[in-house]
Fold this sequence. Notes:
This protein is of the alpha/beta class. It has helices at 6-12, 26-42, 124-134, 141-154, 165-176, 181-188, 193-205, 220-226, 230-234, 271-276, 296-315; strands spanning 15-19, 47-50, 76-80, 98-103, 114-117, 207-208, 213-218, 248-254, 259-265, 280-281, 285-290.
Amino acid sequence: MKKNEILNYIYKYEKIIIHGHSRPDGDCYGAQLGLKNIIIENFPNKEVYAVGEKSEYVDFLGQFDEIDDSTYKDALSVVVDTAVSDRISEKRYKLGKEVLKIDHHIDVEEYGDYNFVDTSYPAASEIITDLAVANKLRINIKGATALYTGIVTDTGRFRYRGVSGRTHILVSHLINSGADLEIVNNNLGKENIKSMKLKGYVYSNFITTKGGFIYIKMNNQILKEYGVSKETASSMVNLLGGLEGHPVWALMIEHEDQIRVRLRSNGPKISDVAAKFSGGGHARASGATLKSWSELDKFIQEIEKEIIKYKSEVQK
Length: 316
Ligand SMILES: [Mn+2]
């Protein structure tokens, strides 16, 4: 589906319900609440809701709506920032008359009746912003602040590949529309004593391998001791990025019956390894799952192979 067709479905429906993924991040909130506010601002006669799980981290952008099953009657279900249907946080999206997927992750499942996927966008929020700007739709302050937050968080504050001239042009529209940079910066940069102490733990207990992989293991006991949620702990993965000679890093959290791995890289492609371990994602930012710690050695071997491959390619 072409980008300029997306809005036709929004035009067609009087009721639109916007969904995201479970354990939502800044981009998920940004794209959902950004789109919701664009619809409110430009189509005041339409009914629009954003639904899903709450995230403390980006709760400052606004709250999700509570709706009954009956609300889905004749509604368009939009799903943003979610590659696979398993990850859609509100399973009732299926109750909508039709489903429209808008995403920037590698296209592995066309779960929508209409699917727009473009991996050249570093954030789903950038797609939504582009839609608004290209179609001359107004973006209110709430919407602009949400979309700006989505782009800032998914690009690691404009540092990752994928950030382009387009990103900055669209962000300039968001700033001109009143995006509150200070509120975003203050909220994203909030530090509490628990997470600051946990950073100390990460910096003192990481493990490095000969092959250039660096990781930290966390279990329930550690999370309890530091009084942080799995979500907060997971957000620390990038503390391990940038160590000289270690282009791949990970944060591993023990869950009841599995270990969830957040995997990052500043060179080697890691998404294939992630896919071998029940995960996937972007070439340099992926997630994986280990059934138990006994799989860790195998996992490390696979990562180290990718590092070797990358080093030999770079030398060419
Ligand atoms: Mn995203």
